[in-house]
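Question (not urgent): is this output format expected?
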Amino acid sequence: MTIENILKRKGDDVTTIAPEATIKRAADWLRAKNIGALVVMRENTVLGLISEREIVHAFSRYGETAGSMLVKEVMQHGVITVSPGESINRVMNRMTNHRVRHVLVVRDGELAGIVSIGDVVKHRLEDLELETSVLRDVTTSRDWR
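Got this back:
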């Protein structure tokens, strides 16, 4: 299974935000869209990522003033990117090794989607349930012989 399989199910919609937006605005977008991260972009260029984690760290570090700070002041730089053809297991390993919860999917140099650790785990669990069901059916059919 590949990352493309996840994108086919969840879609390729990516919510973006400008680096000059406030952290409050980013938090509002996350809540409104019910998502965990926003891609920080200027025109068609990916600059980074801001997630719930960066926002919580900003409020912990700067207090109430964090809400008026700019996204570019706290965003994550150097995001991990993957291609649609990469295997889910490989991406899970990369996310674990780099301790990230979101990766950007890039196809032919263009942003094609975003995948969270939750998306990966959900897809992997569905695969395991299917494998278990198939094995159960095979075992059951052998018992009838």
